[in-house]
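Quick log. Single chain, no ligands specified.
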Amino acid sequence: MLLQARHVNFSYGSETIFNDFSFAVERGERVVLKGESGGGKTTLMRLLLGFETPDSGTLEFQGTPLEGSNLKEFRRQCAWLPQDLNIGTGTVDEVIRFPFGFRDSGNQMPAEKQIIDILSDLGLDSDILRKDFADLSTGQRQRTGIALCILLDKPVLLLDEPTSALDEASKEKAADHIFSDPDRTILSTSHDPFWIDKCDRIIDLDSDTEDAS
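-> predicted structure:
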């Protein structure tokens, strides 16, 4: 089992987010989390990444608790696209290239043509590389974030509402790239029927049920 939660409980103050919650994701699965706003979708991502700690229960990566060196290894193997899209500062080119400067990123710096080709596929012109990331529209930020996840080429993707600001053509292109590797594990959150239909399995956090897509 690649990812697993066992009887997780988590609250923000007096608000219970998870009560005895369990789930599992196999390697190569495409799993989407559904649920109302505030229902725990983003919180689950933050728990997996170690940004939050469960009140009780365990989270595991490859059968080992997500802590210490195993948490570091999980982060090394995954790319994370947050819904707030605050993924860096500086120009778009700097934001895209920044993660490749870390020794444990495991990836070589992409060639400029590779970056331009991915951006073009997602409907962005090459001149966007010189723009300040903070000045981009929400849709442009989201496409830049997706481009970065594609370029990082990690075996695990955590994507929070990845198509919320995309038009239909951009959704198709993004999905073509993201789902191109059958061995890639994708855990995402979404309300978008287009995206949900691309996934293998749905976990509905409102009813704590699972459905095959």
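The helical segments are 41-48, 68-77, 92-97, 112-121, 138-152, 168-178, 193-198.
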